[in-house]
TrEMBL record, chain A:
Organism listed in the record: Parapedobacter koreensis
Membrane topology: Multi-pass membrane protein
Pfam families assigned: ABC2_membrane_3
GO CC terms, sorted: plasma membrane
The name this protein goes by in its record: ABC-2 type transport system permease protein
Domain of life: Bacteria
Main location: membrane
Family matches, as InterPro entries: ABC-2_transporter_component, ABC2_TM
Keywords, ordered alphabetically: Cell membrane, Membrane, Transmembrane, Transmembrane helix
Residue ranges of the TM segments: 21-44, 176-199, 240-258, 300-320, 340-360, 367-386, 392-417
Every ABC-2 type transporter transmembrane domain range: 19-413
Location within or outside the cell: Cell membrane
TrEMBL record, chain B:
The family this protein is said to belong to: Belongs to the ABC transporter superfamily.
Location of the ABC transporter domain: 2-229
One Pfam family cited in the UniProt record for this chain: DrrA1-3_C
GO molecular function, one term: ATP binding
Protein name per its UniProtKB record: ABC-2 type transport system ATP-binding protein
Amino acid sequence: MNKILLIIKREYLSRVKKKSFLLVTFLVPLFLIGIYALTIYLTAKSFESNQATVYVIDQSGLFEGKLANTNNITFRDASGDIPAEKEHILDEEEKTFLLIVPSDIAASSHAELYAKETASLAIQNEVSRQLEQVLRDIAFANAGIDRATVESISPEVNLSAKEITADGEKDSSAGAAMGIAMSLSVLVYICLFLYGAQVMRGIIEEKNSRIVEVIISSVKPFQLMMGKIIGIGLVGLTQFILWIVLSSALMGVASAGITDGQGVKAQIENQQIASGDEVQPVATSQGGIFSKAKQELGKVDFPTIIITFLLYFFGGYLLYSALFAAVGSAVDSETETQQFMFPITIPLLFTYILSFGVLVNDPHGPLAFWLSMIPFTSPIAMLVRIPFGVPMWQLALSLALLVGGFVFTTWVAGRIYRVGILMYGKKASYKELVKWFRYKG
Amino acid sequence: MLEVKNIVKQYANHRALDDVSTRVEKGSIFGLLGPNGAGKTSLIRIINQITAPDSGEVYFDGERLNPNHIGRIGYLPEERGLYKKMEIGEQMLYLAQLKGLSRKDAEARIKHWFEKMEMQSWWNKKVEDLSKGMQQKVQFVATVVHQPDLIILDEPFSGFDPVNVSIIKEEILALNRAGATIIFSTHRMESVEELCDSIVLINKSRKILDGKVKAIRNTYRTNTYRVEYLAYEESVLAVEGLFSIENAAHTDGNTTLTIRIAEGKTINDVLAYLIPLVQIHELKEVIPSIHDIFVQQVTAQASNPLIATQE
């Protein structure tokens, strides 16, 4: 037992001390935060610089005084001289447009927007929305329908999803759950391969450098294998925990920044109110998305997700890394691993792909249930289901099966490993692996 | 020290060891000899408890081999290696601790050995930064640092440069004088013949012979002598019933005869005949080397249909 601790310690320290470990540990949260901050920045930026001026030549005369300025667009009347106005646009800076409304717009439903560059979709949408609105009003008036009446009979239903749990009802959060479920499946999928491959590479290295024979004259091959698997697994856990801690710390800092950003938006709105312009609900609806996202995330049970994630990552890691270890012991170089990797990859890849299509949409269906029970697929499948809420007994059963699964795979892998590590320069086949498995002692 | 009894090790389609028994005396230097593929490494792996035999037993100091003995054996495998990216000092500490030493003891002993072998400055270096010869020294220290009672060296001198060979030979002999039992395993029999007290010869998974080197060579004496004399004397001819001439060579005015003495006669009888005839410079008995004995045995075995058909 003492020896296995020594091995774990060496495997752990030799990796944690590496510069690349520190680099990845600190860069990944920074990267995530960077993306987050960039999104916020760009969103805020779009509010500042999107001021466009649209000169309007209204040949129909229907729109005079009816086009409303918004956050992004200011409408100005132009002279009726089309060529002169087009000339004028060329002299102007960017974000200046010329809107020509033909006299027969009511019939043709067609207008033209000129600029030095093609107008952004947001501007196009806003202009056409306003034109439509005015035309609709005219149509209503012609048909003798009062617009206020129409608006008053536009019914709106707010559906709020609630879950019934033993603790009472609580707000459901399907959107956030779906997002988290998918990120978890990606994370586990990548990490199982990442750390599993590290186990495999470590074993190939020991085999290639021939130190393995020195070590197994001191410890049992199984101890060496388990020491390596556990040591690298702890490296993975350390990395996750550091990521979680660093990310939440950085998130805290970034959130403070966002509040500032919202302050800026509020300022812009205030200015526009002060200048007497009509304030459109664009900015407020943006702010609404932020607060709604926050609200949704608030409903998610993060502690449960983090704990189950760590459990399933470690369980799944133990199960798969044992298989990776067996593969590593059977080959002389990484290029030879291909033929054995296939059966290891299949169940993971299968669950991973399903998790996007089927599992997220039907997290409590029979397929999701069975995949989250089978040890080879449960590390991904169960994590996808967790954010949607999973009964305790299913969680317990799945974890128990996972433990059984990795006990089984480590037993099988151990038997192959103890023979494989001493076979140098021999290309192994599946038949050979079975033979090794059957060797006595 | 070590007793191997009726070991059989069967791999899928070949038998690596077939009913091999031998014993190694405490404090001796023992040669485990045989050509490549004879089963030497399989036997060593069983003694090191890396693999287990299908049948048969191994006794270590009278006890059945068990995990407690691991720390008392030092093993230098034929396929040598160290962690390339790990610092030498850390690596030594790790290997010594795996053999059951405490960190403190391990450190003291490693420092002692490093001083002895003039390796102190290597402590913080990585293995990949050392030359091949330096790595071999490190590997040797790793084998003996836990003061094993039994040191097993598999092809110990292959890959070592001549300077290191003599340094390491010296160290091995010193350890032997201090009480350690040494097992040399090699297919180059001449390289260890003069070092070994006893040997076992293995060929094609079976033991051919074992025992004290002197006794073995005595059993295989052929009553052959080499006689050198001044050549201007009249030449010597074989004498029926006394000796026959196997070979005659003339160099620098001398003649060297290889003669085989007839049964029932001794070298003294031959000398009595020769002395009046020639001026003798040198007389030496030709004792077959272990290698010769091995070749002789293997050919005998191959020509023996009883054994040959068992393969």
